Amino acid sequence: MTKYAFHRSRAEMLPERAPPLTSTGVIGWVRTNLFSSWLSAVLTVASIAVLALVLPGLIEWAFIDATLTGELGKDCPSEGACWAWLDQRITQFFYGFYPVESYWRVNVCLALLVPALAYMLFDKLPYARYGRWYSLAYPVIAAILLVGGLGLEVIRTDQFGGFMLNLIAGLVGIVLSLPIGILLALGRRSRMPIVRWFSVSFIEFIRGVPLITLLFVAIILLPLFLPPQVTLDQLIRVMIIITLFASAYMAEVIRGGLQAIPNGQYEAGQAMGLGYWQSMRLIILPQALKISIPGIVNTFIGLFKDTTLVIIIGLFDILGQARLLQTNPDWLGKVDYETFLLAALFFFVICFSMSRYSLNLEKRLDTTRR
Amino acid sequence: MAEAEAAPEGDLGPIIEITGLNKWFGQFHVLRDIDLTVARRERIVICGPSGSGKSTLIRCINRLEEHQEGTVVVDGVELTHNLKNIDAIRREVGMVFQQFNLFPHLTVLENCTLAPIWVRKMPKAEAQEVAMEYLERVKIPEQAMKYPGQLSGGQQQRVAIARSLCMKPNIMLFDEPTSALDPEMIKEVLEVMVDLAESGMTMLVVTHEMGFAAQVADRIIFMDEGQIVEQNTPDEFFNNPQSDRTKLFLSQIL
């Protein structure tokens, strides 16, 4: 006889049972997430304490003691926030100094942007084939609408401002920095020394210099070197610099993705007779970009927030408008943090949407568990 | 079968001619004076200890590796730095890898139609038809809409074989196709390869599966230290090995 009875057979299989109550439901969640150990319990209590300390004051200032209506700063007597400027100034926060009678052009532009973005971001929309072409044509349509030409009155770019300016510069940068970044990343891994050296020096130079320095160079120094006939719109110069700056970071993010692709993928493409660009486009980049999504979106968000630097060429983007209102004699002394809060809210909505979209995209592209 | 039709009756001249092939990885002399002629429809199994250069040899045939000395002529086209020649040869030479190398972001069907559509410029519908035909031949048509990550290793390798066949190659190269598989999946892949061999495909197979070698090979090549040490028919090779290295190798793996 052996010590342990290892030989057994089961006549009936066990039925499935529901998990114990303590591991599911609200109690289960609280237990596993908030009080799973002493450390986690202490952190939970401390977090609640901090919120209790900060939130009531903030809510009181922003909402309860706040003044919502009024014509001038002196209509805001209380200690609370002054929101009375919102209804008369909100348009300036969005359109800047764009002529009021032409606001419709910006609005049409925004309305047209919705389908243009949708066709780029989502699959399975009706008429997708035409939609993609429309998305490609959109920048031209938008440029004509915003700047003028073709019978529309020309509006100079120094009249652009507010959040609309951030959106324009941000979108241009996002749309252009991805392809440029891809080319730089491929260039850095190229077998051709000239291409590789160019990519490496470009990336390292741009990354090694603060953005604001590059902007000053483009705005102040460049005109000194270029012949006087060459005039390049200041806003375009800023957009080029912001785009190139983001491209350098983008290139490194994508290079990380490219390095994660096993060599076998390149070889499989080669062995089937695919050319370099074909295998990049069909095999390598779809996988590398998918891996790089968090980094790419990170760069997009950074770029979008960098658009506030247009202030150094004297344009008043949403942050410029926020500061302008604080020094406006009508509201002086009564309005300060409020305008920044509004600007922050605008940025947060866009950046958070990008972040959520990227999570959604990652899930959609995950082919391992579909 | 379909592949056999490409070669007219009687045209059994060499499809691969390798003469005086030498290759180095840095200072390491990995292939030394290789001479090898492969006839159409010939099935060759290449074996040998690891590091003997057998994978490198077949990778020189579709120029995944570049050689420094000697000539490699595939189907009448010499492999040089001429990119057109390289592409032309790669279109006619299919390759199956140890690690399958399926494209994880594409479905099984898309894996199979990618090269026919983009390299052969085949219309999509036709490419899909051809792909389904070959998926049926490797006995997994029902997995066509799945992604490689959802398949077992054996299934993935069979897809990889079907993917290569979709290009209707004249030559198939196999680089240790069963080495990364769990034991119970080796058989299903070997069955597909036997079936392919019986259809008249020219095959060069690097493998340690000596049962497969005995069953289908016309010739077995034994390599060691970058050179061809011995080659013979399976019968002679297993029962009457000549060199001591071959005997040692056989005693270790059989």
Structure report:
- The complex is a heterodimer of chains A (370) and B (254).
- Helices cover 67% and strands 0% of the residues of chain A.
- Chain A is an all-alpha fold and 370 residues long.
- Chain A folds into two domains: 21-64, no CATH class; 86-98 and 155-365, MetI-like (MetI-like fold), CATH 1.10.3720.10.
- Chain B has 254 residues and is of the alpha/beta class.
- Chain B is built from ten helices and ten strands.
- Chain B has helices at 2-6, 54-61, 83-92, 108-118, 124-137, 153-165, 183-198, 210-216, 234-239, 244-253; strands spanning 14-25, 28-39, 43-47, 69-74, 77-78, 93-96, 171-175, 202-206, 219-224, 227-232.
- In chain B, strands 6-7-8-3-9-10 form a six-stranded mixed sheet, with helices on both faces. A four-stranded antiparallel sheet of chain B has the order 2-1-4-5, covered by helices on one side.
- The radius of gyration of chain B is 18 Å and the shape is globular.
- Chain A binds chain B through residues 262, 264-265, 267-268, 270-275, 278, 282-283, 286-287, 290, 365, 367-370, and chain B through 62, 64, 87, 90-91, 93-95, 97, 99, 101-105, 114-115, 118-119, 147-150, 163-164, 167.
